[in-house]
Predict the 3D structure of the following.
Amino acid sequence: DQQVKQNSPSLSVQEGRISILNCDYTNSMFDYFLWYKKYPAEGPTFLISISSIKDKNEDGRFTVFLNKSAKHLSLHIVPSQPGDSAVYFCAASATYKLTFGKGTLLTVNP
Amino acid sequence: DTGVSQNPRHKITKRGQNVTFRCDPISEHNRLYWYRQTLGQGPEFLTYFQNEAQLEKSRLLSDRFSAERPKGSFSTLEIQRTEQGDSAMYLCASSESQGTGFNEQYFGPGTRLTVT
């Protein structure tokens, strides 16, 4: 029973365009959501988070949107850069432990 | 602040051997977590410490696994009688515990275990 789902295994975008990564969850007890970026052979790097009491959080080129009624969140990266190429994980928490999706491989082409 | 560190980065062992991994969290963080990641999956929660107290263990953590955080600083994860199914990336994370809100977890580089 996967409580956090990232249905797109991969995404390819052109440099300078917008990247949109999507995530769905099933557990209505989740109240905090995070996005992590991971390069091969490294641990996940924290990017941005959002509390369930908000619907948007922005940090530089990264914006996370939360739609609680749809149990859906998305990460927007604008403008996308080749260095953004990595696996992006969506994670959710109801207490202190994180439940992760399987990740989406983002490739930003120059 | 040097971030979360983990040692060793890679470990190859034969089935049936015991292995131990170490995690050093960010110095002011009193919460420490262990996760395991297998190929094509996201990290999965294994266990969690608040200072030296182990507060939760996942059912993924069989009795062959044991974790300690003796002085509330570094932590060790030991796997006894390793099996090929234990091959994975073992990730450590740490966080603060300020206030009642969630505190973001910061991950180390992981230890990749290969059981032959």
Observations:
- Chain A has no helices and eleven strands.
- Chain A has a mean pLDDT of 95.
